[in-house]
Structures are given as structure tokens and as C-alpha cells.
């Protein structure tokens, strides 16, 4: 249960600090898993869609981490907890839907040819967007590192 910091005893503040550190650690683990999944999924294209299915195990791990996260967010104010949980849930749901759609295509489910092509096109578009997003994040990271290196060179640090 969230309590305002000013209303806490010293022991309660220490517990809240430990709870927040545990929450940060859990989120970091989840984001590392998401990054691994995103980089693996970025290798998927129209000719190897079933490669995405290799991420089912990681999705299960991420779902398990989400279950733990949902117990740990109680140290946050309700609106903040909701935002954290919603972001993670939406990611898990999206990737789960992508994998399920891919699995159905692989099973050769009774899908009309034009609908099948539309689904494939949608999946390819998703993976193209994922690659674009990762490239954008990479560029931003390189830009931030260059700025830091420029500051270090200026200060002599």
C-alpha cells in the first residue's frame, strides 16, 4: 500500500526504499527481456515469419516477470502503478497476438488467400516498424554518447 513519504516512520521509509529498488530491478529485467525479444524479432521478414515463434519462451518469461511486477507496484501511487503495468501488459499482449497470428498461419489454418496475404502484409509491416524503431533508438543512443564524449573532451575528464 502506498503511503506518502512525510507520513512514514524511518523504518517504513527504509522499507519503501527497498521496495522501490526491487521494483526498479524488476523493470530493468523486463526491459532487458523486451530488448532481447525486439532484437530477435527484428530479424523476421516476409520469408521467415515463423522465426518469430522462437520468442514464445521469452514471452512466457516476460509474462512471469509481469506477474511478479504486478505484486511489487503496490509501493507506487495508484496512477503510477497503473501506467507501469499498462505499458508492460500492452507489450505482452501485442507480442502474444503477433506470435499467435504467426502460429495460425504456420498451421495452414483455413484462411482465404487474400486474407492470408493481408495478414502476412500486416505482420511484415509490424516487423518493418520494429526495425525502424530499433534503428531510431540506436541513432539516439549514438547521438547521446557523442554528446557525452564531446563534453568529456571539453572538460578533460
Tell me what you see in this structure.
With 157 residues, this protein is mainly alpha-helical. The chain is built from four helices and no strands. The chain is flat and about 65 Å long. The model has no long low-confidence stretch (mean pLDDT 90).
Portion of residues within helices = over 70%
Largest sheet: none
Q: Report the radius of gyration as a whole number of Å.
A: 21 Å
Question: Gap between N and C termini, in Å?
Answer: 44 Å
The portion of residues forming beta strands comes to under 5%
Round the mean pLDDT to the nearest integer and report it: 90
Helix count equals: 4
Q: Can you tell me the overall shape? A: flat
SSE order, as H and E? Answer: HHHH
Count of extended strands: 0
Low-pLDDT parts are none
Task: Indicate the structural class.
Answer: mainly alpha
Structure at a glance:
The chain has helices spanning 10-41, 56-72, 78-106, 113-155.
Topology of helices and strands:
Elements: H1 10-41, H2 56-72, H3 78-106, H4 113-155
Helix pairs in contact: 1-2, 2-3, 3-4
Primary descriptors:
4 helices; 0% strand; 157 residues
Amino acid at each position: 500500500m502506498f503511503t506518502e513519504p512525510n507520513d512514514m516512520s524511518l523504518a517504513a521509509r527504509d522499507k519503501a526504499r527497498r521496495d522501490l529498488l526491487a521494483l526498479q530491478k524488476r523493470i530493468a529485467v523486463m526491459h532487458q527481456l523486451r530488448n532481447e525479444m525486439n532484437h530477435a524479432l527484428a530479424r523476421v521478414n516476409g520469408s521467415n515469419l515463423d522465426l518469430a515463434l522462437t520468442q514464445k519462451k521469452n514471452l512466457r518469461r516476460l509474462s512471469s516477470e509481469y506477474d511478479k511486477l504486478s505484486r511489487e507496484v503496490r509501493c507506487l501511487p495508484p496512477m503510477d502503478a497503473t501506467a507501469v503495468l499498462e505499458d508492460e501488459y500492452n507489450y505482452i499482449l501485442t507480442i502474444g497476438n503477433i506470435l499467435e497470428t504467426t502460429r495460425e498461419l504456420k498451421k495452414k489454418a483455413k484462411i482465404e488467400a487474400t486474407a492470408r496475404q493481408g495478414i502476412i502484409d500486416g505482420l511484415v509491416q509490424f516487423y518493418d516498424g520494429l526495425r525502424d524503431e530499433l534503428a531510431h533508438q540506436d541513432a539516439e543512443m549514438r547521438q547521446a554518447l557523442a554528446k557525452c564524449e564531446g563534453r568529456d573532451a571539453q572538460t578533460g575528464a
